[in-house]
Amino acid sequence: MELTKEEQSALNGEKGDVLQTAYRILLATGEATNAEKLIPITWAHLSGVNYNTIGDAGEEFLKKLSQDAKVKVKTTLNPMGFDFDHILEFDHIDDDFIDKQKSIKDSYIKMGVEPTFSCTPYDIYDLPEKNTQVSFAESNAAIFANSLGKLKTNKESAFSALASALTGKSPYSDLRKDETNSPLTIRMKLENPNELDFGLLGFFAGKVGDSSVNISGVSQPDRRSCKALCGGMGTSGTCAKFQFTDDEETNSEKIDFGKEEMNKIYDELNTTDKGDLITLGSPQLGLQELSDLSKMLKGKSFQKRCMIFCSRAVQHQARNLEYTNEIERAGGEILSDCCTCLTPLIDTNQTDAVTTNSVKGAYYLKNSTGVDVNLKPLSKIIEEDTK
Amino acid sequence: MTKVIVQGKARGTVLKTSNPINFLGAVDKKTGIIHDQKYDIFEKSIKDSILVFPYGIGSSVGAYTIYSLKNFNSAPLAMICRKADLTVASGCALANIPMIVVSSEQFDSIENGKEIQIDTESTTVLN
Predict the structure, then answer these.
(1) Residue B59 appears among annotated catalytic residues
(2) Is A48 in Cβ contact with B63 (below 8 Å)?
(3) Angstrom distance (rounded) from CA A376 to CA A368
(4) Taking a C-beta distance cutoff of 8 angstroms, is the pair A313, A76 a contact?
């Protein structure tokens, strides 16, 4: 990758440690994506906020970095470990965790990052115009931005997005260039798919696809299903983009996603037929999803604990529109700034198994949190776990 | 074809897996032990190895896992992949872990348990 004189001098350390670190990362990610140069980006979305995932090494790194670093472009932030408004209700979270999480939060704010604590920046802000270059680290958000928002981003890593935030630049990879035809089309063979089916389709597509896939056989799904598709896809592989196409139009290789393929993924992620806790939200729920949920819960109550994750911005809107009334009356706990994935609010001392409709959530609940997972669509959760 | 992603030099024993690695989901960030039983290197530690794997997958936060491994002295000495991904590339860049991408043929020819040397400054990067 060719660097400008100015970029080269920053890489050599002539503009301080922060920019040297940032350009070291951009150089590596530029080589990794075969980019020939760096280009400007206008919005970075960072991951690496939850103390549960980045640990002491991450907390110390950010603390040190924030002494001198400032972001150069609009920068938003992924969820952290918990909701500070509700932390006292979870007495198994120790003070050390709370202190370290606060330190991470403070470091980001000190660098000028907007404390959105959301994996769904597309639900909080209006998206910029088509083809705008951004750098989104959260995988579901990157896939959403490329595929449905018509923006351009790599499936950034926590550090590549951070480097973009600090420099306002990112490698000009193939994904950032004009539309290219994907070499692979996945033919959706399931009829009347629900959001869980779309999540499973995403997980399957992420496994078989490279950087981009076509998906045929679906008419424009609703937002809940779109988010599930993005979440599933981001979890299982390197795929950063999909486009809905008509099967006949493409010359690409074709793979079917039917009952057999779906069951295989389902059996990989679903480990029990009963959860003792329900979680909704990975990705965090948007306003429309909370509205739908409040309607589905009319006159019903959850028969077990149910955590509902949404961004703080969405929670404010939902409160103003009174969508939260019905949800809270039904026993749902609305939590912000965190999400099903990797929250310490759920742990094996308190919980054996979790019911969720999120494929992404299922993967991390099983592999990182270490609990069993009961995967079922929202309609079935309402049917079987409320009265 | 060998492509240098992060420069450096290392000598050590190959730990090879055919599974793409999800660093956040599958690797203990303090010890380097693989704790996902679906991996063919389940319960093995990647510490001080020349880690050979197809590519990284999954969460973008896996880059912090690589950085954390380095801080706890549990990181691989170098990484060799068949395909570069941003999580592994950026994690190695920040943690100063040499990383290269090799062709499928080269990848297939690297034997598990063998001692090899990587030197990105040398004409034969891999020895």
Answers:
(1) yes
(2) yes
(3) 20
(4) no
Which amino acid type is present at position A352?
D
Q: Is A270-385 in the same CATH topology as A5-176?
A: yes
- Domain positions in chain A are 5-176, 184-267, 270-385
Query: How far is Cα B116 from Cα A377, in angstroms, rounded to an integer?
Result: 49
Tell me the two tokens of residue A262.
């779906």
Q: Supply the CATH classification number for the domain A5-176.
A: 3.30.499
DSSP A341: T
A157/B62 Cα distance (integer angstroms): 8
Mark out chain B residues that contact chain A at CB-CB < 8 A.
3-6, 20, 22, 24-26, 29-30, 36, 55-65, 67-68, 70-72, 83-94, 99, 101
Q: B58 and A50 in contact by Cβ < 8 A?
A: no
Q: State the pTM of this model.
A: 0.96
Per the structure block, which two tokens stand in for B58? 């999954």
**Residue ranges of the domains in chain B?**
2-119
pLDDT tens, residue by residue, A234-271: 999 889 999 999 876 678 899 999 999 999 999 999 99
Q: Which fold has domain A270-385?
A: Aconitase; domain 3 (3.30.499)
Multiple choice CATH, B2-119, 2.60.120.330, 2.60.40.790, 3.90.226.10, 3.50.30.10: 3.50.30.10
Interstrand relation of A213-216 and A277-285 (parallel, antiparallel or unpaired) = unpaired
